[in-house]
């Protein structure tokens, strides 16, 4: 793949450990000198675990949150990412730019979807990942991204999306509302 030649260079910074789950800030190297930012929560009891990746709704900051509770309840590795080039708790002044829908290389969601695939690559390099169970989920934009990424990567086993967006762009031609981002 396009990003396979770029080392992941994972950076984990301890955020919390409640005795049941340990949560870290996560940063991975990405295409176009970008980074993937988010959080990863891992059960403390040892062993291997399935993975749940939560994708963000629309917004330029504060859209990814530590998912320690999901990790504990599902007994899974839980990753929550931002699709922007800043830490998940920092606003990105360049969010959704550039976005040239006429140029596949300039389409903003190109790097977002490739970033999701990078997170799956990263999980497959972890010894605590079970190597076979990847779930993508999200609301709104996140649900649309989950559907798109699952269609591109056979390693995804399930997508329980909620209110998916990123579709129906020509709906106005039929007198219906257009989906975000309303191209």
Structure overview:
There is one protein chain. The chain has 183 residues and is of the alpha/beta class. It contains three helices and seven strands. Strands 1-2-3-5-4-6-7 form a seven-stranded mixed β-sheet. Strand 2 (21-29) and strand 3 form a beta hairpin. The two termini are 27 Å apart. The mean pLDDT is 88.
Average pLDDT, rounded to a whole number, is 88
Find the count of extended strands (DSSP E, 2+ residues): 7
Cα Rg: 16 Å
Number of helices: 3
User: Strand order within the widest sheet?
Assistant: 1-2-3-5-4-6-7
Task: Please mark out the parts with pLDDT under 50 across 5 or more consecutive residues, or reply none.
Answer: none
| H/E element order | EEEEHEHEHE
Give the structural class: alpha/beta
Helical residues, percent: 10-25%
Strand content: 25-35%
Largest sheet: 7 strands, mixed
| N/C terminus separation | 27 Å
Name the shape in a single word: globular
In short:
By secondary structure, the protein is of the alpha/beta class. It contains 3 helices and 7 strands. Strand 2 and strand 3 form a beta hairpin.
Output the keywords.
about 180 residues, alpha/beta, 7-stranded mixed beta sheet, globular
Structural topology:
Layout: E1 11-17, E2 21-29, E3 35-43, E4 49-55, H1 68-74, E5 77-81, H2 108-124, E6 129-138, H3 141-152, E7 156-158
Parallel strand pairs: 4-5, 4-6, 6-7
Antiparallel strand pairs: 1-2, 2-3, 3-5
């Amino acid at each position: 793949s396009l990003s396979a030649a770029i080392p992941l260079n994972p950076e984990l910074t301890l955020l919390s450990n409640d005795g049941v789950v340990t949560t870290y800030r996560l940063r991975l190297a990405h295409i176009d000198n970008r980074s993937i930012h988010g959080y990863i929560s891992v059960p403390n009891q040892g062993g291997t675990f399935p993975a749940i990746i939560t994708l963000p709704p629309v917004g330029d900051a504060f859209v990814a949150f530590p998912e320690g509770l999901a990790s504990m309840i599902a007994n899974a590795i839980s990753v929550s990412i931002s699709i922007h080039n800043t830490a998940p708790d920092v606003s990105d002044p360049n969010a959704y730019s550039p976005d040239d829908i006429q140029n596949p290389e300039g389409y903003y969601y190109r790097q977002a979807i490739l970033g999701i695939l990078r997170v799956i690559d990263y999980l497959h390099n972890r010894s605590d990942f079970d190597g076979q169970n990847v779930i993508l989920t999200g609301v709104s934009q996140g649900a649309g991204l989950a559907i798109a990424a699952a269609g591109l990567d056979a390693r995804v086993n399930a997508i329980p999306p909620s209110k998916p967006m990123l579709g129906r762009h020509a709906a106005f031609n039929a007198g219906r509302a257009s989906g975000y981002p309303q191209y």
